[in-house]
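Is this the right way to post structure tokens for a design question? Let me know if I should format differently. Anyway, here goes:
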């Protein structure tokens, strides 16, 4: 079994089976040899395991495309009130010119509305132009397509998927546009298009609406406690849109700045509001991250501090200490100097440190320091 299949199975085991035994996880890896059936068999087995710790809630809504169609969104809710998964059965026909084929799949989203995986309903395979069934590689590629929220499908209309007219291509007349061929399952462009827009359509909107209703301090706190990247991103986006929570979760946000995941690190820093940095203690917590991040992130941290109305003396001294001990570079120091200059910090301790930097081994730093001190002298 190749590494991609093994990783998929391991991720599924971790996601569903924090409680699963090692023996069961090994069993899941063994059945990976029939991975083309894995989308349905694997998840159904684990769903049985989860029944004891999952309360199913069914949310019914009317389809905006067809008032006669109702959509059932099934929520798997854990005992702590957080959601493990959302799912919905999709029974759609892909057809034109009176030639149709059915797509019967069950789509799954994680507890914060991020696409997770799909299953085949009743083991009914997906088919292509010549009625051949999807291969294992086709299913894997489709799964990757559905995971991509920024897919080329996002800004395309259905009529843009094909070019020259031809009979019975992917269930619809026309050949797949060459520009799309590498992004879709061969001879299944309309199936890919239909499922992608289903994943990111009304069902996802409903999931996000449900979650929005539940947002409060307790729910966000429990979500942060999961230490799940997708959940972390949802929590931080929520805080970014509702800054009142920034101070409440300041410690958690500061801790996430050192995440190896750039998405989490960047969003954590953005989610820290300036109002939550109005004390010396909070500013020191933020500046203490400087030794633990890369040079670009250090600039971002200092830039965030520069937006504060007051930057405390102790914070400036700590930042200068980091440069003097080769922890931050000249670029970061120049940002610190801008804070000093703007706030006209002329404390004896800061001045003493700057005098020492007039003899720095780096000519750029010497010039920068001399200019800052000269500016002070002129203002006195």
């Amino acid at each position: 079994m190749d590494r991609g299949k093994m990783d998929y199975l391991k991720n599924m085991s971790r996601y569903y089976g924090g409680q699963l035994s090692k023996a069961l996880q090994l069993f899941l890896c063994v059945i990976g040899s029939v991975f083309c059936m894995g989308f349905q068999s694997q998840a159904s087995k684990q769903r049985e395991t989860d029944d004891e710790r999952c309360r199913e809630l069914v949310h019914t809504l009317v389809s905006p495309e067809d008032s006669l169609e109702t959509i059932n969104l099934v929520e798997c809710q854990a005992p702590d009130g957080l959601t493990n998964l959302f799912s919905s059965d999709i029974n759609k026909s892909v057809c034109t010119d009176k030639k149709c084929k059915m797509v019967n799949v069950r789509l799954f989203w994680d507890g914060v509305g991020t696409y997770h995986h799909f299953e085949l309903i009743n083991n009914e395979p997906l088919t292509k132009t010549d009625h051949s069934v999807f291969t294992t590689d086709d299913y894997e590629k489709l799964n990757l397509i559905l995971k991509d929220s920024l897919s080329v499908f996002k800004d395309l209309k259905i009529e843009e998927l094909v070019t020259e007219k031809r009979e019975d291509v992917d269930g619809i007349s026309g050949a797949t546009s060459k520009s799309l061929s590498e992004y879709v399952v061969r001879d299944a462009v309309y199936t890919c298009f239909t499922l992608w827009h289903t994943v990111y359509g009304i069902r996802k909107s409903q999931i996000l609406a449900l979650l929005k209703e539940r947002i409060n301090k307790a729910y966000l706190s429990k979500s942060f406690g999961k230490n799940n990247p997708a959940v972390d991103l949802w929590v931080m986006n929520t805080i970014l849109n509702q800054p009142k929570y920034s101070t409440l979760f300041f410690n958690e946000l500061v801790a996430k700045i050192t995440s190896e995941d750039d998405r989490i690190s960047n969003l954590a820093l953005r989610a820290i509001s300036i109002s939550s940095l109005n004390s010396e203690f909070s500013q020191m917590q933020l500046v203490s991250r400087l030794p633990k991040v890369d040079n670009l992130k250090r600039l971002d941290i200092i830039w965030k501090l520069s937006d504060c109305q007051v930057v405390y003396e102790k914070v400036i001294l700590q930042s200068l200490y980091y440069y003097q001990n080769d922890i931050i570079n000249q670029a970061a120091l120049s940002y610190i100097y801008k804070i000093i200059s703007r706030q006209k910090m002329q404390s004896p301790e800061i001045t003493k440190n700057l005098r020492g930097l007039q003899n720095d081994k780096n000519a750029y730093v010497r010039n920068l320091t001399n200019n800052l001190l000269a500016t002070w002298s002129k203002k006195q």
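Format looks fine. Someone answered above. Worth noting: DSSP finds 16 helices and five strands in the chain. The first helix runs from residue 3 to 16.
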